[in-house]
Amino acid sequence: MAGEDAVGQDEAAGNDVGALAVVASASAPDGAAVHRALIEGGYRVRTVATGASVLDEVLEATPDILLVDLPTALGHADALAGVHTRHPALASLPVILLLPASWTGEVPEAIGRYVSDVVFHPVRPAELLHRAHAVIARRRRNGARRASAVRMREDMRGISARIRATNDPAVMVDHFLPGVGRALGAHHVALQVFDDDRVAAHGSSWTDPAEGTRMPLAAPAREHQDAALPLALTLWEDSATATFSTGPGAVPDADAVPAPGWLREGDAGRRTVHGVVAALGEGDTPFGLLWIMSEEQPQAWAGVAGALTQHVLGNLAHGLIQAQLISRQQQAVRKLQALNQAKTDFVGTVNHELRTPLASIAGYLEMILDGVGGELPAEASTMLQAVGRNTAKLSRLIENISALSSRESEAPGHGPVDIVHLLSELAGRAAQQASAGGIALECTLPDHPVTVSGDRGQLSAALEIVLSNAIKFTREQGTVSIGLAHEPDHGRVVVVVRDTGIGIPADDVPRLFDSFHRAANANHALPGAGVGLSIAKKTFEAHRGSITVESILDVGTAVAIMLPLLDHAAVG
């Protein structure tokens, strides 16, 4: 603007002494007059000889200003196309076009786009110097604005990076407030966060420590939320900011909003404070306000500064929401861990309290059946044998519950396990159980080791559960087979235990691995507590494997267990 240029030239009048000007004129007298006026004004001057290349002279001299008359400019018009692309440094060079006194036409577009101002011949030295000072000052201001924008962009990028580097809301705010305050040259910055499901309510403020005598402002409190919420909603809906002023020397703008109540209280109310306020939020609704304040002059928050501040404010809002979500997840995890520990403690206590009397019962029962207390009637002996079987069953149930609890809370210790050798051992131990029931046990295994990663004891217990179930639910004259498929191309081994037993109803198959679920056959629940397969499944999954069941009622069942080979497993 003209007024702005006048101010700029007044400010720059003393700063152009020694500035370099290049003068290009087709008229020797006119060029000499311009040369003389600039020399008297304190400029250093280089004159382009008639017919020489103005562009070459400018590129060599790198002047602060170029003054060129119309005939010379028209003579070089063809060379101007794309000159800023080829020579970016020339984009900010001030150019004054010297026009003949009789000129009344329009400056050609090919030239006009590069011209900063015009002066008519014959030149008046005062006017020429005034306009030269003005365009140089404007160039300096524009350069300062660009440099300031670059610095501010780097500052705001740094603030955003520090926000993203933490999940602690307090740390985010501690980085954000001073960072934004210094980048914008503010004396005070306050953040007001409302009660909201997405974030935790709080108020924070920052005062520039460089202003040693300036008293800090109190942070907005929870009781100021109701008064601030309507303003936040309005600013958020319009994607806008608002100005405010308060104090003895404040003259509020017509479009200004009232200063917040917390700023007018106590000592702060006796100060003159100017500021800008913006809404903080994400999605459809805001959840806070950012107040940026100065005690010297109204805050100008527009253009690059406004856009960058809004951007980093959006990063803060997103960071606060994510931090709140993470905090809630951590609280939920801690509660679940506490509940899991309480369950483990309870199971451990119950097991201990049950094992002691059961061991006593089993011991005395064995002594009674052995005749230590005297000979027993046949009927009493039969009944006590039933008690013994149920005592043993109860002991196994307690062991299974303890094993189930430990599988849920303890990770297996991994090491190399030869699954072929392990299955051979299990088959040897199960042979007697199968033979007693009139069941054929077949075992088809490779003649070389196949190594998986895992806890040998846990894998043995889980596989024994599967094999024991197959024998238990197979009728006399039936068959149970153990097979192993070594699949190195897929990085796994598949163990299949197949039986010709009573089968499982289709409706019960999906729930087989639920703790304490017992399948039914012919309208009767099958024997067992229903925890064995649950233990087996948890064990195999803890070893990065899986277990699946296929069954046809009255035909048989096939259980497939997949385990990763050692080279493809996580070995601890």
Describe it.
The chain is of the alpha/beta class and 572 residues long. It has four domains: 2-147, Response regulator (Rossmann fold), CATH 3.40.50.2300; 166-301, Beta-Lactamase (2-Layer Sandwich); 330-406, Helix Hairpins (Orthogonal Bundle); 411-568, Histidine kinase-like ATPase, C-terminal domain (Heat Shock Protein 90). 46% of the residues lie in helices and 20% in strands. β6 and β7 (202-207) form a beta hairpin. α7 runs antiparallel to α8 and α8 runs antiparallel to α11 (303-369). The radius of gyration is 44 Å and the shape is elongated. The model is unreliable at 1-15 (pLDDT under 50).
State the gist of this model:
The protein has 572 residues and is α/β, with parallel strands linked by helices. The chain has helices at residues 2-12, 28-40, 54-61, 70-75, 83-86, 109-112, 125-164, 169-184, 225-238, 261-264, 303-369, 378-409, 419-436, 456-472, 532-542, and strands spanning 20-24, 44-48, 65-69, 95-99, 117-120, 188-193, 202-207, 241-246, 273-282, 285-294, 415-418, 440-444, 451-454, 479-487, 492-499, 520-521, 524-525, 546-552, 556-564.
Instruction: Give the DSSP E fraction (strand runs of 2 or more residues).
Output: 15-25%
Low-confidence stretches: 1-15
How many beta strands in the DSSP annotation?
Answer: 19
Strand order of the largest sheet: 2-1-3-4-5
Any guess at the CATH architecture of the largest domain?
2-Layer Sandwich
Q: Report the CATH C-level class of the largest domain.
A: Alpha Beta
Please, how many helices?
A: 15
The CATH topology of the largest domain turns out to be Heat Shock Protein 90
Give the helix level as a range of percent: 40-55%
Q: Provide the structure class.
A: alpha/beta
pLDDT average, as an integer?
84
Largest sheet data = 5 strands, parallel
Taken from the alpha-carbon principal axes, the silhouette is elongated
Spatial gap, N to C terminus: 73 Å
